[in-house]
């Protein structure tokens, strides 16, 4: 590990490996995940990480970015497979925090600190969206019928 400055290198026997100290953005490729209730969803996520220990990042893992990407993908897939679709949609923040913690624990030995992981988009199949819309509409119609029945009951007791 070299401090800033000008250096000469022997091109035959030395190699410089350059790593950035800034926060890196790692786009996790979209992946199809099966939830606990057997719903297939497509997921897009982004991971933000920084290299804290350059020696570990260079000597403990051959491709720190690729390793972090694959670890994030597999961790997301595992954790989302343990949740239902409803839990996935409603508990997005909790899931992203948990995944970031799990990845950070694993990448610590590589000298990498995962600051955050964000699920950018969750896509549900079109037929499932239609089913969910139909269920929501039936629920609203049921509530409207209950309100109407209560109003008729009050009107009947008022006029009798």
Q: How is the biggest beta sheet arranged?
A: 3 strands, antiparallel
Overall shape: rod-shaped
- What's the order of the H and E elements? EEHHHHEH
Intertermini distance = 91 Å
Strand order of the largest sheet: 1-2-3
What is the strand tally? 3
**Overall SS class:** alpha+beta
Task: Give the helix/strand layout.
Blueprint: E1 24-34, E2 40-51, H1 54-59, H2 64-81, H3 85-90, H4 92-107, E3 112-123, H5 126-159
Antiparallel strand pairs: 1-2, 2-3
Describe the structure.
- The chain has 160 residues and is an alpha+beta fold.
- Helix content is 50%, strand content 22%.
- The protein contains 5 helices and 3 strands; from the N terminus they run ββααααβα.
- Strands 1-2-3 form a 3-stranded antiparallel beta sheet.
- Helix 2 crosses helix 4 (92-107).
- The chain starts with 23 loop residues before the first strand and ends with a helix.
């Amino acid at each position: 590990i070299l401090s800033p400055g000008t250096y000469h290198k022997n091109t035959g026997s030395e190699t410089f490996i350059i790593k950035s100290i800034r926060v890196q953005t790692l786009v996790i490729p979209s992946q199809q995940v099966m939830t606990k209730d057997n719903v297939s969803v497509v997921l897009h996520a982004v991971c933000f990480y920084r290299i804290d220990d350059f020696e570990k990042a260079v000597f403990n893992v051959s491709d720190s970015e690729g390793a972090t990407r694959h670890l994030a993908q597999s961790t997301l897939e595992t954790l989302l497979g343990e949740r239902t679709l409803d839990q996935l949609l409603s508990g997005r923040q909790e899931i992203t925090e948990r995944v970031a913690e799990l990845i950070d624990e694993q990448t610590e030995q590589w000298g990498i600190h995962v600051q955050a992981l964000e699920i950018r988009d969750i896509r549900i199949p079109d037929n499932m969206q239609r089913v969910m819309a139909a269920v929501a509409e039936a629920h609203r119609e049921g509530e409207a019928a209950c309100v109407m029945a209560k109003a008729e009951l009050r009107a009947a007791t008022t006029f009798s």
